[in-house]
Write a sequence for this structure.
């Protein structure tokens, strides 16, 4: 693929704008009207708390059903995303850039004193645009932070399904493609089954909404996490039975650690006395959980996430480093984020955090790091 073709393919079209606008409009409407469990967020410093309607799974299933019906009636093409991937990428990037400029401008103008909308202005425009100014900006009663991360996860699945349709259409469907699609679909569906756990994550409760999060949710997650599928469209990989079993094992272990750790932390925040692995939880200073996975490593959920990322790439074999972009990037990101988490926790919990570090010395991988 020459550079001229890539440059031409990156030019946004009205079709890509319409696809993106239609996707966001759908999510905004169904997210507001479909039934779902309403989950209270964490208590903010001013004593208030946001509430989140967790109907992402129903929204996703309905969208997939509507797309299937539309394709059956020849209203839409299931391969349109895979055929317009680059222009959708550039369109989404441009949207992310401009929406964060608007967020930065409106945040600077905000007079709110509440924790959600109070502006945090450093005086450095680039810094404020990148990290954001407001914690939980809203648009037409839609929590934008929660909305964007939902859009990114759904977008990832839609890209994968379009790539799968393209693979079937071209007659290149392989065991590798099936395995990759299966792992990603299970991971994304599980995310929406447990969508309420997202309400207690660091991104939702502490990070302000700037370009870093918006770009990460709308561009980075769907378009880079799906690299393996794009790669498999033009590269044939033959997997042995042993490699398939080993790949499934990596996925299963990663899922158990990732989901188990996040569930334990979420349940602990809701009920600090809830048993962990059948035993009363060990709590440091009445605040920090040191039982279950959180008694093994201080950021053991990151280990599960890394194993899952690796399982998405293993179906591509080892002939090229390209399909391993996601786990390599994630390793760098999570080590950087773990260092940020450690610094913030040390400042917030002080001697309690020092005691926790003595009790749980490992950061992510026990006996290694």
């Amino acid at each position: 693929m020459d550079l001229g073709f890539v440059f031409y393919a990156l030019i946004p079209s009205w079709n890509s704008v319409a696809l993106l606008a239609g996707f966001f409009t759908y999510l905004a409407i169904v997210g507001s009207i479909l039934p779902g469990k309403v989950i209270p967020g964490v208590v903010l410093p001013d004593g208030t708390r946001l509430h989140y309607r967790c109907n992402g799974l129903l929204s996703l299933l309905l969208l997939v059903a509507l797309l299937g019906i539309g394709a059956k009636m020849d209203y839409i093409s299931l391969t349109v995303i895979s055929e317009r991937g680059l222009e959708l990428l550039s369109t989404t990037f441009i949207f992310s850039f401009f929406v964060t400029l608007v967020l930065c401008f409106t945040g600077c103008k905000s007079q709110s004193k509440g924790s959600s909308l109070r502006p945090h202005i450093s005086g450095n425009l680039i810094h404020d645009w990148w990290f954001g100014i407001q914690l939980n900006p809203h648009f037409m009663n839609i929590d934008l932070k929660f909305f964007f991360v939902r859009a990114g996860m759904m977008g990832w699945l839609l890209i994968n399904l379009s790539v799968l349709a393209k693979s079937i259409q071209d007659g290149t469907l392989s065991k590798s493609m099936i395995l990759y699609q299966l792992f990603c679909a299970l991971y994304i569906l599980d995310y929406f089954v447990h969508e309420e756990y997202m309400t207690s994550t660091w991104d939702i409760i502490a990070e302000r909404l700037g370009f870093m999060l918006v770009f990460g949710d709308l561009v980075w997650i769907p378009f880079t996490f799906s690299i393996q599928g794009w790669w498999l469209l033009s590269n044939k990989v033959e997997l042995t039975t042993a490699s398939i079993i080993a790949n499934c094992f990596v996925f299963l272990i990663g899922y158990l650690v990732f989901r188990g750790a996040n569930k334990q932390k979420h349940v602990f925040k809701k009920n600090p006395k809830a048993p962990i692995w059948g035993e009363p939880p060990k709590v440091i200073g009445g605040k920090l959980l040191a039982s279950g996975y959180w008694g093994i490593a201080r950021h053991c959920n990151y280990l599960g996430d890394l194993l899952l990322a690796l399982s998405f790439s293993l179906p591509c074999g080892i002939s090229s480093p390209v399909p391993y972009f996601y786990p390599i990037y994630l390793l760098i990101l999570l080590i950087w984020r773990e260092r940020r988490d450690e610094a913030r926790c040390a400042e917030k919990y002080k001697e309690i955090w020092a005691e926790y570090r003595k009790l749980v010395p490992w950061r992510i991988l026990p006996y290694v790091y």
